[in-house]
Amino acid sequence: MGTRSRADARGESTLTPTMRWSIAAVAAVVVLGLSATGWLLSTTRDAAPAPLPSATGEPMPGPVAGATPVAGSEVQPPGGAAEAAHLPQTLPATPLVHAPLPEDASARNALVAGFPVAVAGPAPAADVIDSSLAQDGIVLQAALTAHTDADADTVLSHYRELWSGLGLARQTAEGSSEAFSDTYSSVSVSVAPSTGTGTVYTVYAVLRTE
Q: How many CA atoms lie within 13 A of 71 on its CB side?
């Protein structure tokens, strides 16, 4: 009993004050380290994982099946319906003469029998100088020379209106002449230079039956 007490007394006496302070400092560092580790572990466990960025991004919305179009959402053609309504209506070409064609003939101061008046007849108040016809079974050629007191512009205007009304397309307009045609017909009028005694003009037509 007395021996253990003396040994303990010697052991206590071997720890110097410096050693005691070192041991206390090490113990404090260990306690702080354990506390910090515990705090980090609890924070990591409680935090929610951050979402990963999408590689492809959000999908783009597409058209909904059966959806009702909104007014004004339709793609309009260039010009719109208003412009289309003002476009001229093109009629299909049709022959202006039909078989059987009149026989070849010519006449002075009159229209030859069978002359296609509705297509190439003289202008109003004009006097026929000569007329002629020639045909080959499916093509009729008609020629007319006439004289009128009207001026050249009046004569040309008459035939422009006549041939446009028949559905023919204007081809040329060179001063004192006009020409119209389609798939089956070709017609022209030419005004001679003025001599001061009225207007002389010639009409020529090539008309097919098919």
A: 0
